[in-house]
């Protein structure tokens, strides 16, 4: 960001890559890596030493689990000295040129991409809702046809049966199955009884909503619709 970069006649910005394990050492020592010496007439002609680094100018701009990218502001005339010292201490220096116009264009492009992404996401949500309704309607239609066909195969012609949708509490499912079996098991077809005898008490019955297979069987036509899968 523009506010993270200091670029004046006397100050400049350096970017350093610091390993996560050396973060504390870097923060503790970076201000003392190099000094700028000058003679002051106000101090009796003595040589004064000041740090070439602006105090507390280190700022984390980005990081991951292994590294941190720090911004440090230093004296422009001493930037090469600071970079050399940083490399000697094992830190990576990243050269960069800050271009306000390019930065502005990049920010605009980023905002445009975010907006396009949001628009596409909304389109996907709208399409998914429409498709879900159509798929669910088609699925229920197929199940209705299967109930009719299975009932004809089970009870024969002419059609004489009643279809119903039951949503039992999960804890009461076994009890509901027992009540249904007791209610309708007394009037099963001869085909069901013969099949039960042939298969040791099991006959052709219900299957999962996705298709037939090794499913539990009941003395009535049953299909399970599971919306949680």
TrEMBL record:
Pfam families per UniProt = V-ATPase_C (PF03223)
What domain of life is recorded for the organism? Answer: Eukaryota
The protein's UniProt keywords, in alphabetical order, are: Coiled coil, Hydrogen ion transport, Ion transport, Transport
Chain positions covered by the region annotation Disordered: 189-213
Q: Which GO terms describe its cellular component?
A: vacuolar proton-transporting V-type ATPase, V1 domain
Q: Does the record carry Transport as a key word? A: yes
UniProt xrefs under CDD domains: V-ATPase_C (cd14785)
Which Gene Ontology molecular function entries are recorded, alphabetically? Answer: proton-transporting ATPase activity, rotational mechanism
Cite the record's Gly residues compositional bias ranges. 201-213
Q: Which residues form a coiled coil?
A: 103-130
Could you describe the subunit structure of this protein? V-ATPase is a heteromultimeric enzyme composed of a peripheral catalytic V1 complex (components A to H) attached to an integral membrane V0 proton pore complex.
Family, as annotated: Belongs to the V-ATPase C subunit family.
Function, as annotated, reads: Subunit of the V1 complex of vacuolar(H+)-ATPase (V-ATPase), a multisubunit enzyme composed of a peripheral complex (V1) that hydrolyzes ATP and a membrane integral complex (V0) that translocates protons. V-ATPase is responsible for acidifying and maintaining the pH of intracellular compartments and in some cell types, is targeted to the plasma membrane, where it is responsible for acidifying the extracellular environment. Subunit C is necessary for the assembly of the catalytic sector of the enzyme and is likely to have a specific function in its catalytic activity.
The protein's name in its UniProt record: V-type proton ATPase subunit C
Q: Which organism is it from?
A: Phaeocystis cordata
């Amino acid at each position: 960001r523009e506010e993270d970069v200091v670029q004046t006649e006397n100050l400049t910005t350096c970017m350093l890559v610091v390993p996560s394990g050396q973060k504390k050492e870097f923060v503790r020592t970076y201000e003392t890596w190099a000094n700028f010496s000058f003679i002051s007439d106000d101090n009796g002609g003595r040589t004064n030493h000041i740090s070439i680094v602006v105090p507390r100018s280190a700022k984390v701009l980005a990081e991951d689990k292994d590294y941190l990218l720090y911004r440090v502001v230093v004296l422009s005339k001493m930037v090469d000295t600071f970079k050399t010292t940083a490399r000697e201490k094992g830190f990576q220096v990243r050269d960069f040129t800050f271009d306000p116009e390019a930065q502005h264009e990049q920010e605009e492009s980023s905002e445009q991409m975010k907006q396009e992404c949001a628009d596409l996401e909304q389109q996907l949500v709208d399409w998914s809702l429409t498709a879900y309704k159509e798929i669910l309607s088609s699925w229920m239609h197929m199940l209705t046809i299967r109930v009719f066909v299975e009932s004809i195969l089970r009870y024969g012609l002419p059609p004489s049966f009643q279809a119903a949708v039951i949503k039992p509490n999960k804890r009461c499912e076994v009890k509901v199955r027992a009540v249904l079996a007791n209610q309708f098991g007394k009037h099963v077809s001869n085909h069901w009884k013969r099949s039960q005898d042939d298969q040791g008490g099991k006959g052709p019955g219900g299957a999962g909503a996705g298709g037939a297979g090794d499913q539990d069987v009941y003395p009535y036509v049953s299909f399970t619709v599971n919306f949680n899968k």
